[in-house]
Amino acid sequence: MSDTSGSASDAAPEASATEAAARTEHDSGKVSVSVTVNGQARTITVEPRTTLLQALRDELALTGTKLGCDRGECGACTVHVDGRRILACMTLAAMQAGRRITTIEGLERDGELHPVQAAFIEHDGFQCGFCTSGQIMAGVAVIEEARAGWPSAATADVTEPFTLSDLSAAEIRERMSGNLCRCACYPNIVDALAEAAGRR
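and the corresponding structure tokens:
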């Protein structure tokens, strides 16, 4: 009869450590969430009440996403989840398992700014800069939504197909109305997004 006691005893500490970690996590009330953030697989351990904004800033040190109002009114915390813009301060991190999250840090490619980032610089689309990451993330989404043919409250005829060429200044203002700028850089933001969308 072969002696398997060695292999069993070797496996026992590993299993015990895993079980202990699971018990500790359960006892602490925290949950592990696996997500893809800016193209990288990440796992965070958070309390169920932790917002996505808190997880990004405190757990992953991605501080480009800002805490403004903490009540979904200012748009400073705008990020993309699975390609759609959301307010990170109103979204629970524990509900994002398996999703793709993009923050302001994930827009540039190989050292090249995203066209919306570059347009904001060119048109002075910011002053103090606190709301800028949210404005840019919302602006990128606005262009993608227009490209996908989504109408807005400013669209004159929602029965007609909407194209990127229909993205007027009025359309941009309406679609960006959820993002506040205390420095009132709105005209420059509209100009920046118009250029980025190829409308100027």
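(Above: one complete record from the training split.) The longest strand covers residues 31-37.
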